[in-house]
Write a structure and sequence with these properties.
mainly alpha, 27 helices
Length: about 500
């Protein structure tokens, strides 16, 4: 997993961006405005304060569920508040508590969803009472993701840390002096930013579901809202009639109807949503139908999304379908992503996302597919995504494959360097990496190896840097090694620099 140090350990970067988190570990304990519950160390969720608010009962239930530490259910309940009741006085703070519950649930996917909830709060409810706490929670979620190897989170932590004024260490200054000049810091491969999950549809805010309209429009939306209280079997025919309309004036009603259909558990939900994706003239209705398909966790929904990828020519629809499939763990969903990733002639940006999401599902089938796909790809960018995804999966077989690409002189130099870097990040043993130095002859690859050693914590990596700094025939390579020794606090690195300075 991605844990690039950039001359500092990840822990140091996190401490610079949020010292409290580094000292206390990964367990969240708000210290800004929230009082702590004496029995759990968790922040006390405020008691309901808006009696008569349409979301009051839902907030009460979500609060009780969170207090019982049923985090994922609580997160789902809090998420419903801004979706169903966007004007509720609880809506802004509910996004914070959704994010907190997801943070407590603790999987990688939960943490990423927590960040998405915090972003929605920042964009839609900038004056929420929990706004300050949300900023603190966001930093800590990013820190936890960075520790687990999330590339985007690591980059954000590093960016926050770079704002701090860090004076060059004495060891770094000595290293520059010993080298004769300041070594140029190598630029590591830029990790691809993870795709940003689509935001939940926003077509229901304001009058008439977000559309400019009159009182009649408001009444129609109110009538649709009333269907939520009706028996699903009786509501379904009404919703289907709304979705069958094609006049421009009913677009906002159809967006609302798509949402209501997705909330039902009647057979045929997937078919209705798929029909909207294929035939509705309004782009937002089509996109919302894809989004809600991702929330219907059935095999038929996977089949509908697969069908969309096969037959849709709309890049935005395809991108949303790729994300929706990535949220399903079923073999059929993964096969659909693999089929899309290898199809020539499709939007490259969306194929990159498919490759990324395949790397997040660490299965033998996905790993074997990506290794085989690499040789069939013509695009350098797609190849880079494959290298990154395989490094995220880790494992000995993927590591050996990455080293094989790095050794292959028929490959472009940039691809070899990328493969070497990600092999180092993907857990290839330091013994294999240190042996490799003597088998590669081109200077660029040796420079990359020196950088890879600098990113590893093992004693053997430091010893190899010291060996290169003292004995390598190339002055430039010795300077590179000395530069990275100057970034280490290990007494052996300091002693090596002192030895070089004192050399007659």
């Amino acid at each position: 997993m991605y844990s690039m140090q950039l001359g500092l350990t990840l822990a140091a970067l996190i401490e610079m961006s949020d010292p409290w988190l580094s000292r206390t570990g990964s367990h969240f304990s708000p210290v800004v405005t929230m009082e702590l519950a004496a029995d759990s160390g968790a922040p006390a969720v405020p008691a309901p304060w808006l009696q008569g608010d349409p979301a009051d009962s839902l907030y009460r239930t979500a609060r009780e569920t969170l207090n019982r530490r049923d985090y994922r259910v609580a997160a789902n309940m809090f998420a419903l508040i801004p979706t169903r009741f966007p004007r509720s006085g609880y809506a802004g703070d509910a996004l914070y508590w959704q994010a907190f519950a997801l943070y407590r649930a603790g999987t990688d996917r939960d943490l990423r969803e927590a960040l998405a909830a915090l972003r929605r709060q920042r964009e839609r409810f900038p004056r929420a009472a929990t706004h300050g706490d949300a900023a603190t929670l966001e930093r800590r979620v990013q820190g936890e993701l960075a520790r687990r190897g999330d590339s985007e989170a690591a980059a954000q932590v590093a960016s926050a840390a770079s704002a701090a004024a860090v004076s060059p260490s004495v060891a770094s200054a000595a290293a520059a002096s010993a080298a004769g000049d300041v070594a140029v810091q190598p630029v590591p491969p830029a990790p691809p930013a993870p795709p940003v999950p689509p935001k939940p549809p926003r077509g229901f805010k304001g009058r008439a579901g977000g559309c400019a309209g009159d009182d009649d429009d408001d009444m129609r939306v109110a009538a649709l809202n009333a269907l939520q209280q009706m028996d699903e079997a009786r509501a379904r025919p009404i919703l289907r009639r709304v979705l069958a309309r094609r006049d421009s004036g009913s677009a906002c009603l159809r967006r609302k109807a798509v949402f209501l259909v997705a909330q039902q558990h009647e057979p045929g939900t997937e078919d209705i949503l798929l029909e909207s994706v294929r035939t509705d003239p309004d782009p937002e209705v089509r996109q919302q139908a894809v989004f809600w398909l991702s929330q219907v966790g059935t095999d038929r929904a996977v089949g509908a999304l697969d069908s969309i990828l096969r037959f849709s020519n709309d890049p935005e629809i395809q991108e949303k379908a790729v994300f929706a499939l990535s949220q399903h763990d079923s073999p059929r969903a993964q096969q659909a992503l693999r089929t899309y990733a290898e199809r020539d002639g499709l939007p490259e940006a969306t194929r990159e996302k498919a490759i990324f999401w395949l790397g997040q599902h660490e299965t033998a089938e996905n790993a074997a597919f990506l290794r085989a796909l690499y040789g069939r790809l013509k695009s350098q960018e797609l190849k880079k995504r494959v290298l990154f995804s395989l490094s995220q999966m880790g494992g000995e077989e993927n590591g050996r494959w990455l080293l094989g690409v790095a050794r292959d002189t028929s490959q472009a130099l940039e691809m070899r360097k990328q493969a070497l870097f990600w092999a180092g990040q993907g857990g290839v043993s330091i013994a294999e990496l240190t042996r490799l130095y003597g088998t590669v002859s081109d200077r660029e690859m040796r420079e990359q190896l020196i950088f890879v050693y600098s990113q590893r914590d093992e004693s053997a990596a430091l010893e190899k840097l010291i060996e290169i700094a003292k004995r390598d025939p190339s002055p430039e390579l010795r300077k590179r090694a000395v530069f990275w020794l100057g970034q280490s606090d290990d007494p052996r690195a300091v002693q090596a620099i002192q030895d070089i300075i004192d050399r007659p």
